[in-house]
Structures are given as structure tokens and as C-alpha cells.
Amino acid sequence: MNIAIIGAGFTGLSVAYRLLQSGHNVTIFEKDPQPGGLAIGYQEKGWEWTMEAFYHHWFTNDASILGLAEELNFPVIIKRPKTSSLIDGKIYQLDSPRTLLSFAKLSFSERVQMGVVLAFLRFNPFWRPLEKVSATKFLSKTVGKNAYELLWKPLLMSKFGKYTESISLAWFWARIVKRTTNLAYPKGGFLRFAQHLAKVIQKKGGSIQYNVSVENISEKNGKVSLGKQGTFNKVIVTLPSFAFLKLAPSLPSDYQKSLMQLKGLGAVVVIMRLKRPFFTDGTYWLNVCEPGAPILAVVEHTNFMDSKHYNNEHLIYLGHYLPKEHTYFSLSAEDLLKTLDPFLRRLNPEYNKSLIGLKKFSVPFAQPIIPINYSRQVPSMITPFQNVYLANIQQVYPWDRGTNYAVELGEQVAGVIMKK
Ligand SMILES: Cc1cc2nc3c(=O)[nH]c(=O)nc-3n(C[C@H](O)[C@H](O)[C@H](O)COP(=O)(O)OP(=O)(O)OC[C@H]3O[C@@H](n4cnc5c(N)ncnc54)[C@H](O)[C@@H]3O)c2cc1C
């Protein structure tokens, strides 16, 4: 069968790899010059490794992608970096039961109460009943007033803004269940891993056409046309649902309506290259738990992966999830840094003295909104076009998006096609 895949992110690459293993002809069309999608990386002059445009790591229980790396003999590094939270202007390491139990902003009984609730979520395998309740309602009633107001409410509000109240407890459950204190990272960066997988695909006879943006999808007599890119027996679309609709305007209107109900946030990231570390306490990831803070997270990548791979530079992400209309999307990296500067100076008054470079990345759809009872809304892989399949970031429920689930999804959609 002649199969086309739109998108060379980890879903597209994984489905291509599996379909080639079972003898199909596969062509991937990718609008960017490199594979990797949302996990794409780049490399500055003098760097030995690549780094992601948007901060990325794996949890050590991300079995699908770690299994794929092993299958492909790709080296993976496992480390225990420090994750902290900024609360009332102070940084607290909060990334394990031990650090939670010594969190001085809560009384001993409040810490125990929060620990019991988090343990209940972590060890409860039944997520379905949880999806009926909102995360804010559950947490505000169970973890204790102080823990909710200091930690969870500001975090949820900064991440989800106007959607906060609608976020399902199942989403929160998935975050708690998946978190591991050790984190994993592909040696050389996610771009290197994606390039390696792309090479394997090409060696197996698959074709990857970069810098090709598919503009139209239509179906006639069971054959799928991608306009200039030709006609195929089957097509797999790995783009977010709203982008799929733009390419296929002849899809039935009730289907279009159902996909348009799915909401999401974009992401904006500024990457600072510094001569000296930003954090003095070795923090890799800082959650900003401050209502009204101009940013959600400060991530010092080189407190996870050694700065020697990046010409001894110290690399810091300043990240936020925002609706795509937000002004941050249209600001230059320099202007956005000016906006963030008063906040950053509170964390490190001298950071800008060692600033040697600045880059900004943004994407209009990065974080699906998972409301109450999302299982009723998850789009199917089967679409109204008989031979067009949808496999995207909005289908990995109850899990949150991630390259691990992109690999899983790729394997699932390959399975659906091979059964037909
Ligand atoms: C800020 C941020 C932080 C993240 N952190 C992590 C993390 O720590 N760990 C983790 O595992 N995951 C993380 N993720 C999530 C992860 O990146 C995604 O879940 C995963 O990469 C999705 O892969 P995908 O292939 O499904 O989609 P995508 O990566 O979106 O791939 C879709 C591809 O389609 C291409 N495309 C779009 N339109 C067209 C067109 N018309 N024609 C041809 N090609 C087209 C795009 O260029 C893209 O390459 C993060 C994401 C973001 C944004």
C-alpha cells in the first residue's frame, strides 16, 4: 500500500517506522527542514549537542519512547535534576516525598494531609471516575487551604488561565502518576534522536520530504489526494485537529464542529545563553507559583545536561503557555526579555551581565485543554474520509501530551491500518 504521513514529529516518524517494518510504501511530508515537530532542536555555533526549541525531557517510566531508543541502539542519559517552586519570593525544592514533607511553608499536619492526597492519586489506577470532577474543586477540598492557595492554585492558574476551572482531575492525576524524580534525555538532544530515527526510516525505503507543506486533503472513490503531493491509498495526519480541518474543508460540518470544540494553548519560550549559571542552587526546573507572574517556568537546561556539551554556556528557558492571541507571540526576543526582566532580577540580579545570546520560539498549539469528561470528546483515529486517519496530541488521553505518547499513538495507528 502507498501510505502518506503528514508531519515528521514523533507520531509521524513512529508510524512510518512501524509501517515500513510490515512492508508498506511510506512517504512523510514535513513542512520544516528537520524532523522532530514540537520536540525539534537546534544548534548554535560551538555547541557539540543540539538543544530543543521548547524544554524537553523524559520520565524514566516513558516506556514506549525509551523502548524505541533501546530498539534503535540510541544512548539515553538518566539523571536526577533538582525541581523547585517559587513561593512567596523564595525557592523551595519540591520534587519528592521527602522534600514535600520538609516544606516549611506548611505545618507538619498540612504536609501530611497533602502527602496523603498525592499518594492517593499516585497509587489509584482508576482515572475514569476522576474525569468527572475538576482539578481545582478536588484540590481545594482535599489538600488543605494553605497547600492549595500556595502551590496548586497558582500553578494551575498560570498554566491554564481562563480554562483553569474546567481542567479535569484526570489530567492532574496523569501528571502525578507519571512524574519520576530521575529524568531521561537522549544523548545529543531530541533532534539527534529524531534524525537517527529518520535515517532508519530512509534506510528501510521510506521517503521523507522536508520543506513540503501539504495544503489540501480530499478523497474520491477511496483514493486520497494531497494536491501537488499526489494520490495515496491511505493518509495519516499528525497535525492538531484544527490544522487538519484547514487542510480538508470538504469534511462534513458536524465533524468539523466536534473538532472545533477542542481547545488548546500555544507556547512562548525565550532561551537565554549566559556565561554564568542563572540559579545559584543548581535548580533545573523552577515552577513559578506566583499569581500574576509574567512567566510559568524557568528551566536551566544546563543544570540537567552538562554545559560542556554547549561550549560551556549556561542555557535557560523562560516559558509560558498562552492563548495564541497573547502579545508575547508578537514581541521580539529582546522586547519579551525586557518585559520579564524585573521578575528575573528578583531571582538573579546580575543575570544580564553574562548574557551572550537570546532566541525566541513560539507555537500556536502546544497544550491541549483537558476539560471534565474529556473521554467523550477525544477525536477518533477514524475520520469521515474512509482512508484518512487522524493521530495527534489531542488523543493521548488520559495522559498529557508527550513524545512518549506520540510513539504509542504512532504504533496504535499503524496497528489500525495493518488490520484493515
Ligand atoms: C513547551 C513544550 C514542552 C514540552 N515538554 C515535553 C517534554 O518534556 N517531554 C516530552 O516527551 N514531550 C514534551 N512536549 C510535548 C511533545 O513535544 C509533543 O507531545 C510531541 O512532540 C508531539 O508529537 P507529534 O508528532 O504528535 O506532533 P508534532 O510534534 O506537532 O508534529 C507535527 C508535525 O507536522 C508538521 N506539519 C504541520 N503542518 C504541516 C503541513 N501542512 N504539511 C506538512 N507538515 C506539517 C509540523 O511541522 C510537525 O513537525 C512538550 C511540548 C511543548 C510545546
Automatic annotation (TrEMBL):
Domain of life: Bacteria
InterPro entries the UniProt entry points to: Amino_oxidase (IPR002937), FAD/NAD-bd_sf (IPR036188), Zeta_carotene_desat/Oxidored (IPR050464)
Domain Amine oxidase residue range list: 10-391
Any Pfam family: Amino_oxidase
Annotated Gene3D superfamilies: FAD/NAD(P)-binding domain
GO molecular function: oxidoreductase activity
NCBIfam families: PRK07233.1
Protein name, entry field: Amine oxidase
Organism in which the protein naturally occurs: Candidatus Roizmanbacteria bacterium GW2011_GWA1_41_13
Lineage: Bacteria, Candidatus Roizmaniibacteriota
